[in-house]
Write a structure and sequence with these properties.
Strand content of chain B: under 5%
Number of strands of chain B: 0
Distance between the termini of chain A: 49 Å
Number of helices of chain B: 6
Distance between the termini of chain B: 58 Å
Number of strands of chain A: 0
Helix content of chain A: over 70%
Order of helices and strands of chain B: HHHHHH
Strand content of chain A: under 5%
Oligomer: heterodimer
Structural class of chain B: mainly alpha
Largest sheet of chain A: none
Largest sheet of chain B: none
CATH superfamily of the largest domain in chain B: NADH-ubiquinone/plastoquinone oxidoreductase chain 6, subunit NuoJ
Chain lengths: 101, 165
Protein backbone atom coordinates (compact mmCIF):
# COMPACT_ATOMS: atom_id res chain seq x y z
CA UNK A 1 0.00 0.00 0.00
CA UNK A 2 2.69 2.50 0.96
CA UNK A 3 4.59 1.99 -2.28
CA UNK A 4 1.36 2.60 -4.09
CA UNK A 5 1.09 6.13 -5.54
CA UNK A 6 -2.60 6.09 -4.63
CA UNK A 7 -1.80 6.35 -0.92
CA UNK A 8 0.31 9.46 -1.56
CA UNK A 9 -2.42 10.97 -3.73
CA UNK A 10 -4.99 10.37 -0.98
CA UNK A 11 -2.71 12.24 1.45
CA UNK A 12 -2.50 15.05 -1.10
CA UNK A 13 -6.31 15.22 -1.42
CA UNK A 14 -6.71 15.21 2.37
CA UNK A 15 -4.23 18.05 2.79
CA UNK A 16 -5.90 20.05 0.05
CA UNK A 17 -9.33 19.50 1.63
CA UNK A 18 -8.00 20.56 5.04
CA UNK A 19 -6.49 23.70 3.51
CA UNK A 20 -9.72 24.47 1.67
CA UNK A 21 -11.78 23.96 4.84
CA UNK A 22 -9.50 26.33 6.74
CA UNK A 23 -9.79 28.84 3.93
CA UNK A 24 -13.59 28.69 4.06
CA UNK A 25 -14.15 28.44 7.81
CA UNK A 26 -11.57 30.67 9.48
CA UNK A 27 -11.94 34.45 9.60
CA UNK A 28 -8.48 35.45 10.73
CA UNK A 29 -6.67 36.78 7.66
CA UNK A 30 -3.37 35.19 8.72
CA UNK A 31 -4.91 31.74 9.13
CA UNK A 32 -6.67 32.05 5.77
CA UNK A 33 -3.23 32.78 4.36
CA UNK A 34 -1.74 29.71 6.09
CA UNK A 35 -4.52 27.56 4.60
CA UNK A 36 -3.50 28.70 1.12
CA UNK A 37 0.05 27.58 1.87
CA UNK A 38 -1.28 24.16 2.88
CA UNK A 39 -3.18 23.84 -0.40
CA UNK A 40 -0.05 24.80 -2.37
CA UNK A 41 1.85 22.05 -0.58
CA UNK A 42 -0.82 19.50 -1.37
CA UNK A 43 -0.43 20.38 -5.05
CA UNK A 44 3.35 20.07 -4.80
CA UNK A 45 3.00 16.61 -3.25
CA UNK A 46 0.77 15.49 -6.15
CA UNK A 47 3.32 16.79 -8.67
CA UNK A 48 6.14 14.85 -7.00
CA UNK A 49 4.01 11.67 -6.85
CA UNK A 50 3.46 11.81 -10.59
CA UNK A 51 7.12 12.64 -11.20
CA UNK A 52 8.01 9.44 -9.34
CA UNK A 53 5.28 7.46 -11.08
CA UNK A 54 6.48 8.28 -14.57
CA UNK A 55 10.17 8.59 -13.65
CA UNK A 56 10.32 12.11 -15.05
CA UNK A 57 12.57 14.71 -13.40
CA UNK A 58 10.58 17.55 -14.97
CA UNK A 59 8.17 17.24 -12.05
CA UNK A 60 10.96 18.29 -9.72
CA UNK A 61 11.58 21.36 -11.85
CA UNK A 62 7.94 22.33 -11.45
CA UNK A 63 8.24 21.82 -7.72
CA UNK A 64 10.60 24.81 -7.84
CA UNK A 65 7.93 26.73 -9.72
CA UNK A 66 5.52 26.12 -6.82
CA UNK A 67 8.20 26.98 -4.25
CA UNK A 68 9.06 30.30 -5.90
CA UNK A 69 5.35 31.01 -6.38
CA UNK A 70 4.74 30.39 -2.68
CA UNK A 71 7.64 32.68 -1.75
CA UNK A 72 6.29 35.48 -3.95
CA UNK A 73 2.77 34.91 -2.68
CA UNK A 74 3.81 35.00 0.96
CA UNK A 75 5.86 38.17 0.47
CA UNK A 76 3.02 40.06 -1.23
CA UNK A 77 0.30 38.54 0.94
CA UNK A 78 2.04 39.30 4.22
CA UNK A 79 2.83 42.87 3.20
CA UNK A 80 -0.86 43.31 2.33
CA UNK A 81 -1.78 41.93 5.77
CA UNK A 82 0.62 44.43 7.38
CA UNK A 83 -0.78 47.32 5.34
CA UNK A 84 -4.36 46.35 6.22
CA UNK A 85 -3.51 45.98 9.89
CA UNK A 86 -1.99 49.47 9.89
CA UNK A 87 -5.18 50.91 8.40
CA UNK A 88 -7.75 48.93 10.44
CA UNK A 89 -6.06 47.33 13.43
CA UNK A 90 -8.16 44.27 12.66
CA UNK A 91 -7.53 41.03 10.83
CA UNK A 92 -11.12 39.86 10.50
CA UNK A 93 -12.23 39.06 6.97
CA UNK A 94 -15.75 40.26 7.82
CA UNK A 95 -14.48 43.81 8.22
CA UNK A 96 -12.99 43.95 4.75
CA UNK A 97 -16.13 44.33 2.66
CA UNK A 98 -15.46 47.54 0.67
CA UNK A 99 -15.06 45.60 -2.55
CA UNK A 100 -18.34 43.74 -2.10
CA UNK A 101 -20.50 44.52 -5.12
CA UNK B 1 10.39 -0.02 6.68
CA UNK B 2 9.24 2.10 3.76
CA UNK B 3 5.64 1.56 4.81
CA UNK B 4 6.27 2.44 8.46
CA UNK B 5 7.86 5.74 7.44
CA UNK B 6 5.05 6.45 5.01
CA UNK B 7 2.39 6.05 7.69
CA UNK B 8 4.35 8.12 10.21
CA UNK B 9 4.96 10.98 7.80
CA UNK B 10 1.47 10.89 6.28
CA UNK B 11 -0.32 10.87 9.62
CA UNK B 12 1.89 13.62 11.03
CA UNK B 13 1.38 15.76 7.91
CA UNK B 14 -2.41 15.38 7.97
CA UNK B 15 -2.71 15.63 11.75
CA UNK B 16 -0.56 18.75 11.99
CA UNK B 17 -2.48 20.20 9.04
CA UNK B 18 -5.73 19.65 10.93
CA UNK B 19 -4.24 21.30 14.01
CA UNK B 20 -3.11 24.21 11.86
CA UNK B 21 -6.65 25.15 10.90
CA UNK B 22 -8.29 24.43 14.26
CA UNK B 23 -6.04 26.19 16.80
CA UNK B 24 -7.25 29.56 18.06
CA UNK B 25 -3.97 31.45 18.19
CA UNK B 26 -2.41 32.25 14.83
CA UNK B 27 1.05 31.44 16.18
CA UNK B 28 0.02 27.90 17.13
CA UNK B 29 -1.44 27.44 13.66
CA UNK B 30 1.80 28.55 12.04
CA UNK B 31 3.91 26.25 14.21
CA UNK B 32 1.65 23.27 13.44
CA UNK B 33 2.01 24.08 9.77
CA UNK B 34 5.81 23.95 10.12
CA UNK B 35 5.48 20.43 11.55
CA UNK B 36 3.20 19.47 8.67
CA UNK B 37 5.69 20.80 6.11
CA UNK B 38 8.60 18.90 7.66
CA UNK B 39 6.55 15.69 7.57
CA UNK B 40 5.75 16.41 3.91
CA UNK B 41 9.49 16.71 3.27
CA UNK B 42 9.78 13.18 4.67
CA UNK B 43 7.20 12.03 2.11
CA UNK B 44 9.25 13.71 -0.64
CA UNK B 45 12.28 11.68 0.42
CA UNK B 46 10.14 8.54 0.17
CA UNK B 47 9.26 9.55 -3.39
CA UNK B 48 12.97 9.59 -4.34
CA UNK B 49 12.96 13.37 -4.43
CA UNK B 50 15.66 14.29 -1.90
CA UNK B 51 16.45 17.69 -3.36
CA UNK B 52 12.83 18.93 -3.24
CA UNK B 53 12.67 17.48 0.28
CA UNK B 54 15.69 19.48 1.41
CA UNK B 55 14.30 22.60 -0.26
CA UNK B 56 10.98 21.99 1.50
CA UNK B 57 12.70 22.02 4.88
CA UNK B 58 15.02 24.92 4.09
CA UNK B 59 12.70 27.22 2.14
CA UNK B 60 9.18 26.29 3.23
CA UNK B 61 9.62 25.33 6.86
CA UNK B 62 12.70 27.50 7.19
CA UNK B 63 12.26 30.71 5.24
CA UNK B 64 8.60 31.17 4.34
CA UNK B 65 7.15 30.02 7.64
CA UNK B 66 9.69 32.05 9.61
CA UNK B 67 8.53 35.09 7.63
CA UNK B 68 4.91 34.25 8.50
CA UNK B 69 5.74 33.77 12.20
CA UNK B 70 7.72 37.00 12.14
CA UNK B 71 4.67 38.88 10.80
CA UNK B 72 2.35 37.21 13.34
CA UNK B 73 4.61 38.30 16.19
CA UNK B 74 5.13 41.73 14.62
CA UNK B 75 1.39 42.41 14.38
CA UNK B 76 0.76 40.93 17.84
CA UNK B 77 -2.99 40.88 17.24
CA UNK B 78 -5.07 42.14 20.19
CA UNK B 79 -6.89 40.01 22.71
CA UNK B 80 -10.35 40.29 21.15
CA UNK B 81 -8.95 37.93 18.61
CA UNK B 82 -11.30 37.38 15.65
CA UNK B 83 -9.62 34.04 15.05
CA UNK B 84 -12.04 32.45 17.51
CA UNK B 85 -14.97 33.19 15.25
CA UNK B 86 -15.85 30.85 12.45
CA UNK B 87 -17.72 31.61 9.28
CA UNK B 88 -21.11 29.87 9.15
CA UNK B 89 -21.40 29.89 5.33
CA UNK B 90 -17.90 28.45 5.27
CA UNK B 91 -18.92 25.58 7.54
CA UNK B 92 -22.00 24.87 5.41
CA UNK B 93 -19.89 24.96 2.22
CA UNK B 94 -17.31 22.65 3.80
CA UNK B 95 -19.87 20.08 4.94
CA UNK B 96 -22.07 20.03 1.85
CA UNK B 97 -19.55 20.71 -0.94
CA UNK B 98 -15.99 20.15 0.18
CA UNK B 99 -16.39 16.84 2.05
CA UNK B 100 -18.41 15.13 -0.73
CA UNK B 101 -15.98 16.47 -3.31
CA UNK B 102 -12.95 15.21 -1.39
CA UNK B 103 -14.65 11.84 -0.86
CA UNK B 104 -15.41 11.64 -4.59
CA UNK B 105 -11.81 12.50 -5.46
CA UNK B 106 -10.46 9.86 -3.06
CA UNK B 107 -12.88 7.31 -4.52
CA UNK B 108 -11.72 8.11 -8.04
CA UNK B 109 -8.07 7.79 -6.99
CA UNK B 110 -8.63 4.46 -5.24
CA UNK B 111 -10.47 2.99 -8.25
CA UNK B 112 -8.12 4.36 -10.90
CA UNK B 113 -5.67 2.22 -12.82
CA UNK B 114 -2.46 4.05 -12.09
CA UNK B 115 0.62 2.21 -13.28
CA UNK B 116 2.90 0.69 -10.67
CA UNK B 117 5.89 2.99 -10.23
CA UNK B 118 8.67 1.71 -12.43
CA UNK B 119 12.29 1.47 -11.44
CA UNK B 120 13.65 4.92 -12.15
CA UNK B 121 16.76 5.93 -14.05
CA UNK B 122 19.84 6.25 -11.82
CA UNK B 123 19.97 10.01 -12.37
CA UNK B 124 16.33 10.52 -11.33
CA UNK B 125 16.00 13.36 -8.84
CA UNK B 126 19.69 14.14 -8.56
CA UNK B 127 20.72 17.78 -8.37
CA UNK B 128 22.63 17.41 -11.65
CA UNK B 129 19.65 16.14 -13.64
CA UNK B 130 17.28 18.73 -12.14
CA UNK B 131 19.78 21.48 -12.95
CA UNK B 132 20.19 20.22 -16.51
CA UNK B 133 16.42 20.30 -17.04
CA UNK B 134 15.94 23.64 -15.32
CA UNK B 135 18.62 25.41 -17.35
CA UNK B 136 18.01 23.40 -20.51
CA UNK B 137 14.41 22.73 -21.44
CA UNK B 138 12.84 25.00 -18.85
CA UNK B 139 15.08 28.08 -19.01
CA UNK B 140 12.09 30.27 -19.79
CA UNK B 141 10.34 29.05 -16.66
CA UNK B 142 13.38 30.12 -14.68
CA UNK B 143 13.32 33.54 -16.34
CA UNK B 144 9.60 33.99 -15.68
CA UNK B 145 10.20 33.05 -12.04
CA UNK B 146 12.96 35.67 -11.73
CA UNK B 147 10.55 38.28 -13.10
CA UNK B 148 7.84 37.10 -10.69
CA UNK B 149 10.17 37.31 -7.69
CA UNK B 150 11.34 40.78 -8.73
CA UNK B 151 7.73 41.94 -9.06
CA UNK B 152 6.89 40.42 -5.67
CA UNK B 153 9.90 42.16 -4.11
CA UNK B 154 8.86 45.57 -5.45
CA UNK B 155 5.22 44.99 -4.48
CA UNK B 156 6.11 43.88 -0.95
CA UNK B 157 8.33 46.92 -0.36
CA UNK B 158 5.67 49.29 -1.73
CA UNK B 159 2.80 47.72 0.22
CA UNK B 160 4.56 47.50 3.57
CA UNK B 161 5.86 51.07 3.50
CA UNK B 162 5.02 53.28 6.43
CA UNK B 163 2.34 55.32 4.65
CA UNK B 164 -0.02 53.89 2.10
CA UNK B 165 -0.82 56.95 -0.02
Amino acid sequence: MANDPKAYLVVSVLLFAIGMAGFLIRKNLLIVFLSVELMLNAGALAILVFARLYGDTDGHVFFFLILALAAAESAVGLSMVIALYRLRHKLDTDDLVELRG
Amino acid sequence: MHQVFFWIFASVAVGAGLLAITRKAALHCALSLVVSFVALAGLYFQLKAPFPGILQVMLYAGAIMVLVIFVIMFLNAPEEDPSEKISKPGVIASVFLLIPFAALLIGVILHSNLPVPAAVAPDFGTVASIGTRLFGTWTWVFEVLSLLLLAALVAAVLLAKKRLD
